[in-house]
Amino acid sequence: MASGEAVYNTTTMQETKPKKWFLIPTEYLDKVRFVIKVVEVLLSVVAFVLEELVDSCLHCPALYFLEFVSCTAFLFTLLLLVLLSTNLHRTVEIHCWSNLDLVYTAAIACLFPIASITLLCSNGGTELEMAAAAFGIMAAVAFVTDVVVHIKTKGVPFCKRNQETQSSDQSTSPEKERLDSNGESPRV
């Protein structure tokens, strides 16, 4: 019996640690930007909820525009946060996460102040409308901060790709120089 156990012990693999479900930092999201994205989600949802609590409006288009922007920002930022902080971004067949994140965040950073200022300029004077606009402005500041931190840490992804292709075109490897026109290396 003891010899049988020895055979099983040598061939049996030991249990490894289970893979983490939640990964921070990842190649697309570091700890600082993770915290900023959580703040974006929280401020967006507060702006959305406050806007939804307004029961009557005098200038409804401004309120509806803030509703659209805050709801879009909340849902898509939450989705992006979940995708980039877990292994799910590897299962989705998108290879330009950095570009997608930067363009989306910059677009929301432009839309939030427009929607908030529009609501501040044309509202019914209720405290809920003012509070929704204030949280919209705070969310805009968070999105602008995210764009700035993204550019400072990762650079502009569109410019990187152009610089990489230009530098690879200009440099020639020693192997290419040594090959003659037939693709064979010259005999020395």
Automatic annotation (TrEMBL):
Compositional bias of kind Polar residues: 164-173
Record field: compositional bias (Basic and acidic residues): 174-188
Domain of life: Eukaryota
Sequence segments annotated as region (Disordered): 162-188
InterPro entries given in the database record: Marvel, MARVEL-CKLF_proteins
Positions of the MARVEL domain: 28-155
GO cellular component: membrane
Keyword Metal-binding: no
The UniProt record lists the keyword rRNA-binding: no
Location of the protein in the cell: Membrane
Pfam families: MARVEL (PF01284)
Keyword terms of this UniProt record: Membrane, Transmembrane, Transmembrane helix
Protein name as annotated: MARVEL domain-containing protein
UniProt organism field: Aldrovandia affinis
